Backbone:
C-alpha cells in the first residue's frame, strides 16, 4: 500500500541513521523526497541508489539560504506536503565543562534548525492546502540525564516549538507533531562502538522491551504522521523508546 502517494517530503539529516531509514520508507510508500544533509558523499550515493524519486541537497540546517534551496528543490517535485526535521547532534559534557560555544553549536542545529525548517515550509504548505511537519525530538526531550545539558534542553525546546507551531498552523491544514526516540542503533546511539547484542546486555536488559531500537522503528512513526491516517493528530508527542519512559524492570521484583 502506498501511504504517501503523491506527497513531496524533505528529510533533514537524511543520509544516515534514522533519517536514511525515513527516506527509504517514504519512497517505498510513494513519496518523492529531498534528502538534506551536510554529508554530501553519503547523501548523493543514497539518492543515486533510490532513483528518480530521491534528490540530494547539501544542507546546513542552521543556514537560511540552504533552507531556501532545499525548499525550492522540493517544489520542483510537486506541492510540498511533508517536512521531517531530523538533523541533530549530541554532546555529552557536564555543565561546568560545556562552553557557551559548545552549547550554541548544539542549539543552532537541533533547535534553530528545527525552527528554520518550520518557518521555511509554511508558505509552500499553505499553498498546497495540507502539510505535516514532524520534529524529531528525543526521549531526552521528556526527561533528561547527567551530561546532556545542551542536548536535552534543545530537545525540550523542540517539543515546545512543536506545540506552538501546531496551534498557529492548524488553521491552514498543517499538522505539527514531535517524535521522541529512545535508544536507537545508530552512530549517535552507540552503533559506532558496540554491537547491538552488547548494547542489549549492557544497557537495555531491564527495559520493558529489552533491546536497542532500530532506525526503521522510528521511521514507521514518521510514516504514520506524514500520512493522511494521522489527519487529526497535531501538537502531540509520539514516543518510540522501548518503554524507557514507563520505567524499568528491577531485579528481585515480581515479574522481573
Residues:
Amino acid at each position: 500500500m502506498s501511504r504517501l502517494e503523491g506527497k513531496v517530503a524533505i528529510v533533514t539529516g537524511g543520509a544516515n541513521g534514522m533519517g536514511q531509514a525515513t527516506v527509504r520508507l517514504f519512497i517505498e510508500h510513494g513519496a518523492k523526497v529531498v534528502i538534506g544533509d551536510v554529508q554530501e558523499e553519503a547523501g548523493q550515493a543514497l539518492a543515486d541508489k533510490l532513483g528518480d524519486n530521491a534528490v540530494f541537497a547539501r544542507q546546513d540546517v542552521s543556514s537560511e539560504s540552504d533552507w531556501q534551496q532545499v525548499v525550492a528543490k522540493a517544489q520542483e517535485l510537486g506541492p510540498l506536503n511533508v517536512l521531517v526535521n531530523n538533523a541533530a547532534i549530541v554532546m555529552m559534557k557536564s555543565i561546568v565543562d560545556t562552553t557557551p560555544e559548545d552549547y550554541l553549536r548544539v542549539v543552532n542545529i537541533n533547535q534553530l534548525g528545527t525552527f528554520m525548517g518550520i518557518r521555511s515550509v509554511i508558505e509552500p504548505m499553505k499553498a498546497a492546502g495540507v502539510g505535516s511537519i514532524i520534529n524529531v525530538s528525543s526521549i531526552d526531550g521528556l526527561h533528561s540525564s547527567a551530561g546532556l545539558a545542551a542536548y536535552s534542553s534543545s530537545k525540550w525546546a523542540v517539543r515546545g516549538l512543536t506545540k506552538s507551531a501546531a496551534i498557529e498552523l492548524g488553521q491552514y491544514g498543517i499538522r505539527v507533531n514531535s517524535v521522541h526516540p529512545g535508544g536507537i542503533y545508530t552512530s549517535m546511539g552507540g552503533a559506532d562502538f558496540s554491537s547491538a547484542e552488547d548494547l542489549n546486555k549492557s544497557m537495555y536488559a531491564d527495559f520493558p522491551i529489552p533491546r536497542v531500537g532500530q532506525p526503521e522503528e522510528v521511521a514507521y512513526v514518521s510514516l504514520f504522521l506524514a500520512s493522511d491516517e494521522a489527519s487529526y493528530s497535531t501538537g502531540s508527542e509520539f514516543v518510540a523508546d522501548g518503554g524507557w519512559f514507563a520505567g524499568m524492570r528491577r531485579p528481585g521484583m515480581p515479574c522481573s
